Amino acid sequence: MQTLTRKRIISWLHLLILATSFGWVVASADEEAHSEEGHITLTPEQVKHAGITLDRVGPASIRETLPLYGQVVPNALRQQAVSARFPGVIKSVAKQVGDAVQRGETLATVESNESLKSYPVVASLDGVVAQRSANVGEQTDGRTLFVIGDYSTVWVELAVFPADLSKVHVGQPVRIETRDATVTGKGKIIAILPVGSSTNQTTTARVLLDNPDRQWIPGHFITAEVFLSEAVVATVIQDKAIQIIEDESVVFVAGDEGFEPRPVILGRSDGQVSEVLEGLRAGEAYVSTNSFTLKSELGKEDLEHDD
């Protein structure tokens, strides 16, 4: 049986307190784990090493969400394309791609073709040099010499398929997560773009996302959850308590005779908790952590009976 970290292993004394609180009886230390009339009993040592903990069926809020995929892009309202005011020759370049700049800081110096006087090309916002196409000795020719981006905020563009479009609205909160789930953030939908994609028939929902630490990199793909609704449900359990046994959702209920595997019918879920429609009553104690241990013990009993 798997041994868990010390942090997650409850002491036997704590276990006895839980047993008293929940009206739960376990086997004595010198008894083996066994199943009797559909109930499983474990020795205190087995329970201790399995890190089994209990919770009670009760009310909780369940949020309905819509999972979507998308991409981080620059906030176009916080970008500046910098060109020279007058045609001329580039005499010096002060900034490179990736350099931080402040508003009013010189990016390059240009000598005017008409007056032959030099003047500075400056940034008009704080940010980072995202592009540079200025080299000493070149003519400016009215082209863009630098692109400055302020990435303290970014946009996230979510692809919404036609079947889901009616569910998405401006102002809805959105949870954003990197593909490796190492960075999360929250924003709100600020626009539903009027023109869709002819390639995959999706419509873009745009989210404004704060990015003070520049963890969100334009060009990177993300996953998102749009919050649609929230409801308080009377009978809710943690999803990690649910085991699948013979194609049924089962929760292990703690009682006087041990642990009873109880089939349940589930309703709404937000990925963390689920509504119980049938099989459990409000207030009942159930195994919320490491219920897979009990499923394993149940499987052992089935093998012994087959023999």
Please state the second-level CATH architecture of the largest domain: Beta Barrel
Number of helices: 3
The biggest beta sheet is recorded as: 6 strands, antiparallel, barrel
Low-confidence stretches: 1-36
Look at the helices and sheets and give the structural class.
mainly beta
Give the overall average pLDDT: 86
Count all strands and give the number: 22
What is the CATH topology assignment of the largest domain?
Answer: conserved putative lor/sdh protein from methanococcus maripaludis s2 fold
| β-sheet strand percentage | over 45%
Helix content: 10-25%
Please state the overall shape, judged from the principal axes of the Cα atoms. Answer: elongated
Name of the CATH first level of the largest domain = Mainly Beta
Q: Walk across the major sheet and give the strand order.
A: 4-12-15-14-13-16
CA distance, first residue to last residue:
22 Å
SSE arrangement, N to C: HEEHEEEEEEEEEEEEEEEEEEEEH
Overview of this structure, please?
By secondary structure, this protein is mostly beta strands. It has three domains: 6-63 and 232-306, Beta Barrel (conserved putative lor/sdh protein from methanococcus maripaludis s2 fold); 65-75 and 152-230, Efflux pump adaptor protein, beta barrel domain (Elongation Factor Tu (Ef-tu), domain 3), CATH 2.40.30; 78-149, OB fold (Dihydrolipoamide Acetyltransferase, E2P) (Beta Barrel). The chain is built from three helices and 22 strands. A six-stranded antiparallel β-barrel has the order 4-12-15-14-13-16. A four-stranded antiparallel beta sheet has the order 5-11-10-7, with no helix packed on it. The longest helix has 15 residues, at 292-306. This is HlyD family efflux transporter periplasmic adaptor subunit.
